[in-house]
Amino acid sequence: MEQMTFGLIAFGVGISLFFAWVYIEYRKHPAAERRILRKRLLIALGHGALNLIKFAILLVAGLFIAVSWLALKENPAPRRR
Fold it and tell me: b or e along 65-79 (b: 16 or more beta carbons within 10 Å of the residue's beta carbon)?
């Protein structure tokens, strides 16, 4: 449990340092270039969000198909004569 807590803290610190570095690099650019960078970032975030949504839909569909298939395999429909 302690290792997991330490890992989560280290991950949080690492992500925070990464975002601080990105912000510092972003502030080095002139204002006009920052607007372009901001647009590109928003476009990239939009594409990332769409990919996450697609992945979630595929994951849910895959789980639904797997569970349905297992349920039908375990309890097949009765055969009519």
Answer: eeeeeeeeeeeeeee
